[in-house]
Write a structure and sequence with these properties.
single chain; mainly alpha
């Protein structure tokens, strides 16, 4: 049903949204009121945060390009904004565009410095990117679950897409950390991410099992299940 470009969009868009979400939550926790960090740790985390913002934005841009390329006529994407209808696709498109814009502001703030890269403006942008990321991670699952394909007619698909995107985002952030100086300075801070990744993968496996159980229990999905299990 989906071509390779659309599949790449779903994967890259999910990873980018997950990475934005993880980076925002980590940054907000790192800079929470009352938290104390020495100057070296702050500098190292600041460098890591800038790299994560840039990588997340580049992956998101690649995802959007795959989507536009798959459309064949990219100008068709404008119809979602010029003549919107209340659908999951419209919701996801607006969230994707807004997340792209928030990512541009975050990267620009990192590059240019004050005021976007410091204090309240950055925290507002990070909170907005976290909320938008949740919509981007979940909307595809909601769209497919609301369709007419029996295999996908289960709300478990929303959880599966969200957890898959989140695990991809956690992996991306930890890979960025692995290849920066933060791999030693931020070792203690990264451990919660590792634990969260294990928990996310466990929940994703559980969601996949529930999805398969729902599909096996749906007689209308028998042919799709047979193809899936091939």
């Amino acid at each position: 049903m989906f071509g390779p470009l659309l599949i790449m969009y779903l994967f890259l868009g999910g990873v980018a949204a997950g990475a934005f979400f993880v980076t925002a939550c980590w940054s907000l926790a790192f800079d929470r009121p009352g938290a104390w960090h020495d100057a070296r740790t702050r500098r190292t985390f600041g460098a890591l945060r800038r790299r994560c913002h840039l990588v997340s934005l580049l992956v998101l841009i690649a995802a959007v390009l795959c989507l536009l390329w798959d459309l064949g006529m990219p100008e068709r994407a404008l119809l979602l904004f010029l003549a919107p209808h209340l659908t999951f696709v419209t919701l996801g498109s607006y969230a994707l565009a807004a997340l792209l814009l928030a990512g541009v502001f975050l990267v620009a703030g990192d590059a240019l410095g004050r005021p976007l890269a410091h204090g309240r403006p950055r925290r507002v942008l990070e909170a907005a990117s976290a909320m938008l990321s949740c919509v981007v991670m979940a909307y595809t699952g909601a769209f497919l679950a609301s369709g007419t394909v029996p295999l996908w007619s289960t709300p478990v698909l929303v959880a599966l897409f969200t957890l898959s995107s989140l695990s991809g985002g956690l992996s991306a952030v930890m890979l960025v950390d692995r290849f920066t100086q933060g791999r030693t300075v931020l070792l203690r801070s990264v451990r919660p991410l590792q634990a969260a990744h294990v928990a996310c993968l466990t929940a994703e496996a559980l969601a996949l099992g529930l999805f398969l159980l729902a599909a096996l229990g749906n007689p209308d999905a028998a042919r799709s299940v047979a193809r899936l299990l091939e």
